[in-house]
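tool=predict chain=A
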Amino acid sequence: MTRKGLAMLAGALVAFASLDDAAAQRSPNPPRTFPQFAGTWVLDEQASTGTLTMAPRIPRSLTITATPEALTLTERLRLRPGDNISELQVRTVRFDGTPAVRDRDSTAYEYQDVFLLVADMLVVSTKSIRRRDRNVFDLATDAFAVDGDVLTMHRQLSHVEPPGHIATMGFAPNNFKHTYIYRRSTAQPAR
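tool=predict ok
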């Protein structure tokens, strides 16, 4: 092979390697951002079958946003008279499974939110760990499903105590799922 032929072959190999490196740096599949869940949702109390006064408080409205890395739920909680918590709650959970630790000004609990994707439902599980006894905790698991302009939130409550078993809840209905129906808000944002 001539010197000119070798130079052309070397140039082609360098160009091919550069294209291969660029392709390796790009993700072959675009990230999921769950656009069907995006937007603001308002609780339809009449269509819901869950206890409306439960703790943790359920959102009377929620706004769902997502990036390629995380899901954010901005919730306006349905409070009862005398509740000593903020109406506004923001939960951000990472898609990589890393627990998001938040402290709602509680001296009794630490809250850890974790994301799961189960059968096309977005699941956010909140672990409320007791500061005085870290072996005792509560779980509030919310599974969100969308069908058009209806978002359904199924909530399951659990209480875990030593030696690590799920205890029967004192309020019998809390041993089963609660179902909350939300309608997509058609309100236009204020300008």
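The mean pLDDT is 85. The chain has two domains: 1-30, 35-184.
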